[in-house]
Amino acid sequence: MDGSGIIRGLLIPLKHFFVTYIDDLKWLGKKYFKPEGISLRSSAETRGIFTVQYPEEKLPVPEEFRFIPFLVYDEGQDGSRQIRCTACGICTKVCPPQCIWIERHNDAETGRPVSTPVSYTIDIDLCMNCGFCAEFCPFDAIRMDHDYELANTNRYEHDVLQLEELLKPASYYASIRPENYTREEVRKAEKLASKTIKTTEMDTANPN
Amino acid sequence: MNDPVDSFMNFDLISRYPGLVKKDQRTGYSGYIVEADCLVQFARAVRDELGFDYLSMITAADYYPDDLMDVIYLLYRTTGGPGILFKVQVSRLDSKVPSLSSIFAGAELQEREVWDMYGISFEDHPDLRRILLWDGFEGHPLRKDWKEPLFEEDSKPYKDRWPAGKHKRQEDLNPFKNNVSYPIGFEPEHFSSNNEKALYDALNKTSGNLNGSLKTDQIIVNLGPQHPSTHGVFRMAALLEGETIIDLKPVMGYLHRSHEKIGERNTFLQNMPYTDRLDYISSMSNNFGYALAVEKLMAVTPPERAEYIRVIMAELTRISSHIMTTGFLLNELGAMFTPSLYALEERELILDIFEEVSGSRMMCNYFRFGGVVRDISDSVIEKIRKLVFNRLPRKIDELDRYLTHNEIVRLRTEGVGVLTADEAAAYSAGGPLLRASGVPYDVRKAEPYSIYDRFKFDVAVRYHGDIYDRYLVRLDEMRQSIRIIQQAIHDIPSGPVMTGKSQYQPKVPAGEAYGRVEGPKGELGFYIVSDGKQNPRRYHVRAPSFINLTALSEMSKGEKVADVIAILGSIDIILGEVDR
Amino acid sequence: MTEEKLNTSGLEIPKELENVIQLTTLDRIYNWSRRNSVWPMMFGLACCAIEMICTAASRYDLSRFGMEVMRPSPRQADVIIVSGTVTKKMVPQIVRLYNQMAEPKYVISMGACANGGGPFKEGYSVVPGIDKFLPVDVYIPGCPPTPQALLNGLITLQKKIDGESISKVRWYQKNVEEGIPIPVLGPDLMDPRQYDDISRFGRIQSPEIVDDDHIKNEELDENDTGVAS
Q: Where are the domains of chain B?
């Protein structure tokens, strides 16, 4: 108990202090405000300054990052929106805090349900960002967004998202989750191909 | 649950207590049903003659509309092996059970919780007050016929969400525009709040007068619930003489979020993200425990690769939790923030992996019944490899060099908050708290789950039972976790990560199950009763942080006020798990 | 941080005096000095508090905004970050802490739970939003908001401070508001502002059929029977 333990221990912060400058010199000019600098600072090799200076440089979020859900629509060739959601209601059933409300109407003539939601509401003051809605959606229609900059001054205006605020184009989805998007498109194309093969087979087997 | 006792003991409990003890013969259930009259004798025999010296869990289950409630006891041996489960059945109208706190000191807080939630009173309990709610609260909320103010339906999914889902805020339908309701005829003007008196009366004022000749006054000091170093909203009422603690009562419930009541309304899958929010700095372990419990009922096993991923994630969680605790223990000792900053830096790198794998830094929600959500890519494995083969061992050694021989740390921690091995087991302490007292009890070794029996690792044990040893045990455990991950990364096979298809309303057969894992804080268990419907009838969390607090009072007596903060830091509580 | 220009008065300063003289408005310099030293209270409730600690730690580093000085005492704090689930048992303490803070004071509600109850809203022991009791300035959605989302919220608060005017701020007005009455824990959480409602609704059997006409009718009925007998 002569204090040598303290002194030896305090050499470590001192080492950290010097390493900061050595590392800055080593990566001169490349460490800050550059994508490679940010990825260096979040890798296992990081030394010295660890801070990511948020508004100017942003830590990139990984592909699977989930925040608030959004609804995907496909853009038709004439610019029309084709909403993928069919109002099947699986997301409302699987949602743990029950924060999704869907209104589905029946067709006046046939009496069968219309396959687009009349209204779709997500209360993000309830949402727990678990991602179940996106995981179990059979139509790839609801996905988790990457946008976390949602701070506002009035939750009654901003925190209940309606259909129009939720809809985002498939191109946006492809930009934030390229791997998932490609995988789903490939699967869809395969499904479509097997379907057409089946119908052509049936046609050839049954020429009448 | 298998019946453990009969399989290896030829000790006939049933014929020894004729007519008082019988087997639980409901389908899917196990263990014994004991009459309340002979509960104390039975428990003492089980402890002294069969060696089940570790009271793991006390809880209750309500079988409304039948006039029946079960009080459930689960005991283990600290030498390892399966446990023994027994129940006492009581009527809902007049529910009384003898208290086990004279045999197992660890029963005290758990029995108070059962009283608070179910209104089952424990005779001869030393201090039977409400624990998670406040004295004067109306009703016992976990009873099935008790409805909360914002009650919508008995089980999820709610019918009004689809197909005619019009958004509403449930509290707007309440006459007070808030989550409250009052008994009929209640007049607030005539109400006088007196719910602190019972707490202060419960403090044992007799053991004072330490100085002998010098006469001193005793004062009560409240630490918390808002206190810069209580790890959240935790409160301690301390009776002081000078600066010495004469008695101390933990007061909790400031973060009681009705986890279990909500859990009994959720479907089985919907509980998974809720478990993330129990011990919110080690969500992967919580997922693990819950998945094991439900998988026991469903009788599915995950594929090989998923098992390896699970182990890797659980051990990474342990490292991130322990390194944070170590940093914050130093905070509590007054080393404001530098050690914590070093610790949090490593934690951030681990959280990056969680974020990449599961999509969220803290609330991973990564496990499913029969596997995990998605496979981990080679780049993630490469990242983990870099961390566990290079960076983390280096950084833990650095933390070790930085702190372990520091004289101030040693003077503040050595010999403070001592818990002996016998006391630790009697108080049902778990995790590093138990192992620092010299009891080598680790669920991963005592009753190996998942694939832990394949890995070579040692159970970290220290023998002094003080704060310093708990710190050292955590350092050792991080090293052992790294060892496990290194083996797992080396051996991980390729293949699917999910047995069958992940369903959102899985079929769970009727019965009961208890799944437990060695979480960073201790034995984390989930007791689940299913009656074959889509939501559990009973969902109980055996929360290690909560049960570890039972020993806090004993550890703090005779110490100084400043040491209590350090003792609390060394127990490593997370309020989300303490209060649920 | 980008270089901040204080000179907003619109007047031209000669080139040679640019580093010597700054012209600005009183509002601007008042807000500028306040916004760069917003001291949060060292106060955490639940999961979000861990993210708040991470925000204060080395990776996100609150001190770049002049907010690293977390004060344990409410007297020295400027902003209370309500980070986590607000339970009924805790809300009296939170209101008391808010009352003890000196003006100017701000409230940030961090995470779904503090905003509107979050996933635990349906529970019996949770307050559906801290704004039932405190005047919230900034809401940060997310469960939990990532540290960057919290920083975004703090920047939103800075913008709000920028928009204030020294002549209109509430703490320089003549009639200073009194503190918020502290809720009481009775059979359930009781807001003293609602005592009248509690005793009025307390007489009715079921809370669903609450409306004023109904109460009046009931009282009339009682009177009628009294006369008849």
A: 4-123, 259-575
Output the furthest CA–CA distance in chain A (Å, rounded). Answer: 101
Q: Does A1 touch chain B (CB under 8 A)?
A: yes
For B436, list phi and psi in degrees, rounded to 5. Answer: -75, -15
The CATH number of A67-176 is 3.30.70.3270
If contacts are CB pairs under 8 Å, which of residues 371-410 in chain B contact chain A?
A: 373-374, 383, 386-387, 390-391, 398, 401-403, 405-408, 410
Summarize pLDDT for B418-456 with one digit per residue, the tens.
999 988 999 999 889 999 999 999 999 888 888 998 999
DSSP B265-320: HS-TTTHHHHHHTTSTT-HHHHHHHHHHHHHHHHT----HHHHHHHHHHHHHHHHH
DSSP per position, B209-249: --STTS---EEEEEE-SS-TTSSSS-EEEEEEETTEEEEEE
Q: Is the pLDDT of residue B382 over 50?
A: yes
Q: Does A130 touch chain B (CB under 8 A)?
A: yes
**pLDDT band with cut points at 50, 70 and 90 for residue C9:** low
Range of the domain at C52: 17-163
A13 touches chain B (CB under 8 A): yes
Spatial CA neighbour of B429 closest among B533, B515, B308, B555 = B555
Asked if residue C10 belongs to a domain, the reply is no
Q: The domain at B4-123 falls in which architecture?
A: 2-Layer Sandwich (3.30)
Q: At what angle do helices B467-491 and B378-386 cross, to 10 degrees?
A: 140
- SS3 at position B400: helix
Strands A69-75 and A167-169, by their bridges, are: parallel
Could you tell me the CATH number of the domain that includes residue C59? 3.40.50.12280
Question: Where in chain A is CATH 3.30.70.3270?
Answer: 67-176
pTM tops 0.95: no
Residue C138 falls within a domain, yes or no?
yes
**Complex confidence, ipTM:** 0.89
> What's the number of domains chain C is made of?
1
Q: Which of A126, A129, A159 sits opposite C139 (nearest CB)?
A: A159
Chain A residue closest in CA terms to C1: A56
What pLDDT is stored for residue B533 in this prediction?
87
Chain A residue with Cα closest to C138: A153
CA atoms of A48 and A50, how far apart (whole Å): 6
| DSSP at C41 | B
Is C188 within a domain?
no
CB of B170 within 8 Å of any CB in chain C?
A: yes
Dmax over CA atoms of chain C, in Å, equals 99
More confident residue, C225 or C113: C113
Instruction: Flag whether pLDDT at B478 surpasses 70.
Output: yes
Let me know: does B403 contact B409? Beta carbons within 8 Å. yes
Under 8 Å CB-to-CB from B403, ≥6 apart: which residues? A9, B326, B330, B339, B409, B471
Residue pair B54/B441 in contact (Cβ under 8 Å)? The answer is yes
Q: How confident is the model at residue C227 (pLDDT cuts 50, 70, 90)?
A: very low
Range B259-575: architecture per CATH:
Orthogonal Bundle (1.10)
Domain assignment present for residue C185? The answer is no
Size of interface B-C (CB pairs under 8 A): 192
Query: Would you say B349 and A44 are in contact if contact means Cβ atoms under 8 Å apart?
Result: yes
Three-class secondary structure of residue B566 per DSSP: helix
Q: What is the 3-state secondary structure (H, E, C) of C162-189?
A: HCCCCCCCHHHCCCCCCCCCCCEECCCE
DSSP string, C61-114: -GGGGT----BSSGGG-SEEEEES--BTTTHHHHHHHHHHSPSS-EEEEEHHHH
- Predicted confidence (pLDDT) per residue in A29-85, tens digit: 788 888 888 888 888 888 888 888 888 888 888 988 999 999 998 888 887 888 888
The mean pLDDT of B233-247, rounded to a whole number, is: 87
- The CA distance from C80 to B8, in Å, is 59
